[in-house]
């Protein structure tokens, strides 16, 4: 791995929290991701499935984790099955996890080779009543590819059709949403690398530079800091491009007088950072750009203050909508008649701020989490209001990553210039 070894207590703790929610006499199974093909003999870089990573730290294909808290044999309470490495694999692909290496990473003492899976699993199943199987239940999951996990679900139900099957996903959504201080420490590294990237890029911006040259500056900084790269496809959008919400071409030239919207985050150790900023191409905001920028910034600051234990996300989003409505009225982008006649399902402010304000952040950028229960200490959210004015070639979003604490929050990304003065000072230093 490129990242330095993570504290295995992260994964020991995560398993403990997951196992505590299983019904008696239950086992749960988690599979790694496949290595996806490109064409000919090519493959995509491997990205571990988030759930098995969260519970084991194993960052390798063809791995299976079984958690069985009431296993008849104590050594079977937690088991890893890994692909057996050999000389050929060692020469062509490099080192894979040994049994000792897997323990170092995960804290799991019982490690079998994958070839033993069916035999051992049959024995485990003879002692289990319930089987927790996993699937991607993210509300916006849109997967047409059959994952290794999905293939396992089919195989398991076909071969053991008299067991009671249950879903791991609701438990994981609850467990993964609350980060331990050890996980937050890893997320802080991802945030610090992202901060270094922004501090590098802010000095490179000038009229005539291209969006992809700025993307390259980020990538350079991320790679030299042991990140694998971007946590998600970056948006580097100058002028009008900032109003295309999912603009990822990053192929335009940045023009004097425009702003550039960056929505960029590094990954580190499979944890994501997610930040947005808008900087002027020539190093100085115009008065109009300042007015719109500061409106977004006021909404962001007020919204961050609302992110605290006990708040419901639905209420939070409504309150942020009210804050944005006030700013848009002051900017005269909407008027009181628009507000009076607005459709509650799509309020007037949505014309200029059409996306959500916050999402869970963690191993996945749009991390899993429960949207119907109050915010808890240890949850990590983005806060990212924006105003998009295509008619003025102007799009602004300001996004930070917040860890919820007892008293309020810690801002993981506070080192990235955000006040107009700080941005202009950094650009003109
Ligand atoms: N970068 C994706 C998002 O802000 O949600
Ligand atoms: Mn973002
Ligand atoms: Mn985001």
Q: What do these coordinates show?
A:
With 429 residues, the chain is α+β, with helices and mostly antiparallel strands. It folds into 2 domains: 9-177, Creatine Amidinohydrolase, Chain A, domain 1, CATH 3.40.350; 181-427, Creatine Amidinohydrolase, CATH 3.90.230.10. The chain has 13 helices and 17 strands. The protein has helices at residues 9-19, 50-56, 87-92, 99-106, 117-126, 148-159, 169-177, 181-204, 211-223, 287-306, 313-330, 336-340, 420-427, and strands spanning 26-31, 64-67, 78-82, 110-113, 130-133, 164-167, 229-230, 235-238, 259-264, 266-268, 271-272, 275-280, 380-383, 386-389, 394-397, 400-404, 409-411. The strands form 5 sheets. Strands 4-3-2-1-5-6 form a 6-stranded mixed beta sheet, sandwiched between helices. Strands 7-10-11 form a 3-stranded antiparallel beta sheet. The radius of gyration is 24 Å and the shape is globular. The mean pLDDT is 97. One manganese (II) ion (MN) binds at residues 274, 359, 382, 384, 399.
Ligand list:
glycine, manganese (II) ion
Overall pLDDT, averaged?
97
The number of distinct β-strands equals 17
State the order of secondary-structure elements, H for helix, E for strand: HEHEEHHEHEHEHHHEEEEEEHHHEEEEEH
- The CATH superfamily of the largest domain is identified as Creatinase/methionine aminopeptidase superfamily
User: Largest sheet, if any?
Assistant: 6 strands, mixed
Please list the strands of the largest sheet in the order they lie side by side: 4-3-2-1-5-6
- DSSP helical segment count: 13
The CATH class label of the largest domain is Alpha Beta
The termini sit apart by 37 Å
Main structural class: alpha+beta
- The helix content is 25-40%
Stretches where pLDDT falls below 50 for ≥5 residues?
Answer: none
CATH architecture of the largest domain: Alpha-Beta Complex
Q: What kind of oligomer do you see?
A: single chain
CATH third-tier fold name of the largest domain: Creatine Amidinohydrolase
């Amino acid at each position: 791995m490129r990242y330095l070894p993570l504290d295995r207590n992260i994964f020991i703790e995560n398993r403990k929290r997951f196992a505590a929610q299983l019904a008696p006499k239950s086992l749960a199974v988690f599979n790694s991701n496949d290595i996806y093909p490109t064409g000919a003999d090519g493959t995509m870089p491997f990205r571990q499935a988030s759930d098995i990573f969260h519970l084991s730290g194993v960052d390798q294909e063809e791995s299976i984790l079984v958690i069985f808290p009431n296993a008849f044999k104590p050594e079977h309470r937690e088991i890893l099955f890994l692909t057996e490495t050999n000389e050929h694999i060692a020469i062509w692909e490099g080192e894979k996890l040994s049994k000792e290496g897997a323990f170092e990473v995960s804290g799991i003492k019982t490690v079998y080779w994958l070839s033993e899976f069916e035999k051992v699993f049959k024995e485990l199943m003879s002692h289990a009543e319930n089987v927790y199987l996993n699937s991607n239940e993210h509300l916006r999951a849109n997967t047409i590819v059959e994952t290794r996990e999905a293939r396992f679900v089919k195989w398991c139900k076909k071969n053991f059709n008299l067991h009671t099957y249950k879903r791991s996903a609701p438990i994981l959504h609850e467990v993964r949403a609350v980060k331990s201080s050890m996980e937050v420490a890893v997320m802080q590294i991802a945030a610090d690398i992202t901060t270094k990237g922004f501090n590098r890029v802010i000095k490179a911006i000038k009229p005539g530079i291209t969006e992809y040259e700025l993307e390259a500056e980020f990538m350079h900084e991320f790679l030299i800091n042991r990140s694998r790269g971007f946590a998600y496809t970056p948006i580097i959008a100058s002028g009008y491009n900032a109003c295309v919400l999912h603009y990822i071409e990053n192929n335009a030239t940045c023009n004097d007088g425009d702003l550039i919207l960056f929505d960029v985050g590094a990954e580190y150790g499979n944890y994501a950072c997610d930040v947005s900023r808008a900087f002027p191409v020539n190093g100085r905001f115009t008065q109009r750009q300042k007015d719109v920028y500061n409106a977004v910034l006021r909404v962001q600051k007020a919204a961050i203050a609302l992110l605290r234990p006990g708040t419901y996300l639905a209420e939070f989003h409504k309150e942020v909508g009210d804050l944005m409505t006030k700013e848009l009225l002051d900017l005269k982008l909407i008027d009181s008649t628009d507000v009076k006649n607005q459709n509650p399902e799509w309020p007037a402010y949505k014309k200029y701020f059409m996306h959500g304000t916050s999402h869970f952040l963690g191993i996945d950028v749009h991390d899993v989490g429960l949207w119907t229960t109050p915010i808890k200490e240890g949850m990590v959210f983005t806060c990212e209001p924006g105003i998009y004015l295509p008619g003025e070639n102007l799009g602004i979003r300001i996004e930070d990553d917040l860890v919820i604490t007892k008293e309020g929050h810690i801002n993981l990304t506070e080192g990235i210039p955000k006040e107009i003065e700080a941005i202009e000072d950094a650009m003109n230093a």
